[in-house]
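Researcher: We're teaching a course module on how sequence relates to structure. For the next exercise, students receive a sequence and then see the predicted structure as tokens, so they can try to spot secondary structure elements on their own. Here is the exercise chain.
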Amino acid sequence: MTDAGRDEFDVIVVGLGALGSAAAYWASSRSGVRVLGLERFELGHANGASADHSRIIRLSYHRPDYVRLAKRAYESWSIVEAEADERIVTITGGLDLWPADPAIPMTDYTDSLSAEDVPFELLGAAEIQRRWPAWHLTDDVIGMYQAQGGIADPYRGNVAHRRLAIDQGATLRAKSPVEAIRDVGGAYEVDAGGRTYSAGRVILTADAWTNDLLAHFDRRLPLTVTKDDVAYLELMFELATALESHPAAWTIDEAVAANLGPRAGTTRQPVFSHHAIP
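Model: And here is the predicted structure for the students to work with:
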């Protein structure tokens, strides 16, 4: 995972969570590109936003450009799954739920999907409960079912990206916090772990630490770092088995998002708060 004799690279990726691991993989997939990945903690740590059993993957978004980006994500995961010989995405179908006064109007979603030729089905509360009896909804709730929704496994995805990056020649260094980044005219120098590296491009994927790194250039992004509350509910085996055929679900509300669906090898179901940031 380390290259003791090399200090010059074409691309340096700072932060090797979900985004950084993917960046290291895709950059190293280009012929002749020398890639270095730097991680301040151990690889696969749980200090950021990249560690969990699952994340919802869906085409149902409130902006057409997000829908197009999601389509590309599905295509990209298919490539990674084929190269890694690992199933990362599980298609379950996706269910979006709108209460009477949602944070984002339902029409923002349906208009975006229609604009991008993505089929969907609108359902009333009674029909949702008939199809998926685990739900107990008030009559004013409206749902939208989209067949391509599902879950992606961050643990498997991150490991696969890093393993494939290494196979393609990338150097990944754990426990190498970045102390400084300097623009040296057409290139950058990065001090990390007691060494200085140089590269023509630096990709910052440092999550909550992004502005600490941008401070080296007297720059700051308007980022609001939050710590969301996640509760894991240990389900009875029978209920967890029943959820194997349940669509991944997302409530369009400021209060709570319920991430329901199959979990390979676990009966733990996460329920987490999701705050709308203006």
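Model: If you want an answer key for the exercise: The helical segments are 18-28, 64-84, 106-115, 125-131, 154-167, 210-214, 237-242. Residues 17 and 262 are 23 Å apart (CA to CA).
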